[in-house]
Amino acid sequence: MPRVVFVQPTGESQTVDVAPGTSLMTAAVKHGVEGIIGECGGVCMCATCHIYVREEFLDRLPAIRDTEEAVLDVTNAERLPNSRLSCQIKMTEALDGLTVEIPPSQR
Ligand code: FES
Prior knowledge:
By secondary structure, this protein is an alpha+beta fold. The chain has one domain (3-106): Ubiquitin-like (UB roll). Helix content is 13%, strand content 20%. It is built from 2 helices and 5 strands, in the order ββαβαββ. The chain has helices spanning 24-30, 66-72; strands at 3-7, 13-17, 50-53, 83-85, 98-101. Strands 2-1-5-3-4 form a 5-stranded mixed β-sheet. A hairpin with a 5-residue loop joins strand 1 (3-7) and strand 2. The longest helix has 7 residues, at 24-30. The radius of gyration is 12 Å and the shape is globular. The termini are far apart. Bound molecules: FE2/S2 (inorganic) cluster. Residues 25, 38-40, 42, 44-49, 71, 85, 87 line the site of FE2/S2 (inorganic) cluster.
């Protein structure tokens, strides 16, 4: 099963098996990854699932849709060029090893 690595601002990391088709947010909440809350349940309204994606994985991700774009503009944590909402990224085999960072202000 493909894996995702969640890296905390402290540098600690947690590697999680994620079934293809499952969102990163759902996997993070299920495994108790700190800093990912998923308050809206994954409908792209809360931004409590904000992550920073490691540069080398950015071009493997689906494009940002208008709704995600709008929510990223009002996140609590600073928006960076590699910001995404983890509820909008569904796992695939091609994303195995995907590494994402939790914004410091979400801890
Ligand atoms: S879980 Fe609410 S925007 Fe992602």
